Amino acid sequence: KVSTDDPEMAFRTLANREELNPEEDSIHHCLYQFTRNETLTETNKLLCDVCTQRHCGPKNNIKSEKKYVYTNAKKQMLVSLAPPILTLHLKRFQHAGFNLQKVNRHIKFPEVIDLAPFCTAKCKNVAEGNTKVLYSLYGVVEHSGTMRSGHYTAYVKRRAMNNHLSDLVLQGQSQALETEPVKGQWFHISDTHVQPVSVSKVLGSQAYLLFYERLL
């Protein structure tokens, strides 16, 4: 669907993304690249209904696709609805010729992440005037091995019930809460083996999936 909103608002975010200057090999850099502004030109031009009607009349009167008018455009993918649970899936493979190769490098990720620089200025379920959309890390899935075989393990935080999260899921309400990570004990789970670990151990893992819960 092509948005007909004010073009300036369409590319505006809740927080200034240009001040991020994200570090490479970080989840912030991944999000920044995924939500960057792209220019569509040449074979990627956008079919413009308005331009087509202006030149050829109503679209249903056009007999040949060659009469359609395509134009340069800008494209940007932003978050329009901040979810109660934020799940980030890292692409850990790349093409090497005709084969797929696993990407093993470490991607840095924080305990608390602010999604505001990646949200549209009119993001739903964000209180007016808020310039932060904060999430606290509570789970990580890690994969060891190759593209052909390996083993999945998980890091999970045991924490108190987040009543605000329940309200957000059930009613879509969002209120100002604490901006610090949800307190709790981290555990590493591998099959039936479970042991407590430090937060530094969690943040040093080779994340494949990241799970965050809404704070603010």
UniProtKB/TrEMBL annotation:
CDD domains: Peptidase_C19K. Residues 1-215 form the USP domain. InterPro entries: Papain-like_cys_pep_sf, Peptidase_C19, Peptidase_C19_UCH, USP, USP_CS. GO terms for biological process: protein deubiquitination. GO terms for cellular component: cytosol; nucleus. It comes from the Eukaryota. Keywords: Hydrolase. It holds the Pfam family UCH. GO terms for molecular function: cysteine-type deubiquitinase activity. This is UBP16 hydrolase. The lineage of its organism: Eukaryota, Metazoa, Chordata, Craniata, Vertebrata.
